[in-house]
Design goal:
single chain; mainly beta; 3-stranded antiparallel beta sheet; two-stranded antiparallel sheet; 1 helix; 8% helix; elongated; binds zinc ion
Length: 79
Amino acid sequence: MPIYEYEPLDGDCRICGGRFELNRPASREPLKACPLCRKPVRKLVSLANTPRKQFSVTEAKEAGFQVLERRDHGVYEKK
Ligand SMILES: [Zn+2]
């Protein structure tokens, strides 16, 4: 079951700590408000279901990232 992470749109929630995770069936509508404090929330993209791993430079480039390589004296250069 996917884990969804939510964060309040407006300020911090004192009840849920500003961010919470929820197990919800994918078929259900995303939450519109925190069930605890009723503040409007938005769903965060959660990577909880995919194993976290280190991306390689090649993968980052394939994903459209610009990979910068550190040079001396704090100069960065496009690879
Ligand atoms: Zn809340």
